[in-house]
Design brief:
Elements: H1 5-31, H2 43-66, H3 72-75, H4 82-94, H5 101-106, H6 129-138, E1 149-157, E2 165-170, E3 179-184, E4 198-210, E5 213-225, E6 233-234
Parallel strand pairs: 2-6
Antiparallel strand pairs: 1-2, 1-4, 2-3, 4-5
């Protein structure tokens, strides 16, 4: 006697759920979506985990198919949260994440971890924004860096006080531990950029005074709007 559609559904629903979430993890890794959420070094872990979930789903599907004659399967209730889990997986696949780095930066502490290496040996124009921030913390005398050329990228971050800065997010693992790093910019009168706008700024490092204290500030000679980098998070 052929199996009814209801019996087939009862046999397949849980393995299909595992395979769906496994595909979400594999697809997120392959498509680059994880670059917005997680450091690249952890991407293989997610991809392998997704592949294992898909393999487990296939294995469960085969085992359940061999038990298709059991009447007990018909009486099994649908697990709580099953439908919500499936809907969430479909939503993740249909709508890629669009985090607002500026909003996230405004809610995070600005202290940065210790530098993993002595990046200040790089020529000034090759330093990233984060490397500049680390250098200014280890060598805080503004006169040491005055006039140094720079070419940095970042997003426009509006702090709670003061003019917008150019910032990046540093992560140890993922967005949950993100720490903003920013540099003040001597914006020109024509510069009007919304928060989260990604910019490339070429110019020099200048010195100004805030409340009688000298500090370094980025003095642009060229500001270009750029697309968000494929890997916007920095270690």
């Amino acid at each position: 006697m052929p199996m009814s559609l209801r019996r087939r559904w009862l046999l397949c629903r849980l393995p299909l759920q595992l395979m769906l979430w496994g595909w979400v993890m594999v697809w997120s890794t392959w498509s680059g979506r994880l670059d917005l959420l997680l450091r690249a070094v952890y991407h293989p872990v997610v991809g392998v985990g997704g592949a294992l979930l898909m393999a487990l789903g296939v294995l469960q599907l085969r085992l359940a198919w061999r038990q298709r004659a059991s009447d007990r399967l018909v009486a099994q209730p649908l697990p709580k949260g099953w439908l919500l889990s499936v809907v969430m997986a479909v939503v993740v696949l249909a709508w890629p994440p669009q985090p607002s780095f500026s909003d996230l930066a405004s809610s995070r502490p600005s202290s940065i971890p210790e530098a993993p290496r002595l990046t200040f040996v790089l020529p000034p124009e090759q330093r990233t924004l984060t490397e500049w921030v680390r250098l200014l913390r280890t060598q805080p005398d503004p006169s040491l860096h005055e006039g140094a050329p720079l070419s940095i990228t970042g997003f426009v971050f509006q702090p709670s006080e003061g003019p917008p800065q150019l910032a990046r997010l540093m992560v140890r693992c993922c967005l949950a531990d993100a720490t903003p790093t920013g540099l003040p910019v001597e914006w020109r009168a024509t510069d009007r950029y919304a928060p989260d706008t990604w910019l490339r700024i070429r110019g020099t490092m200048a010195v100004d005074q805030v409340n009688g204290v000298q500090r370094n500030v980025v003095k642009p000679t060229e500001v270009t709007v750029i697309p968000r980098p494929e890997r916007p998070l920095e270690p």
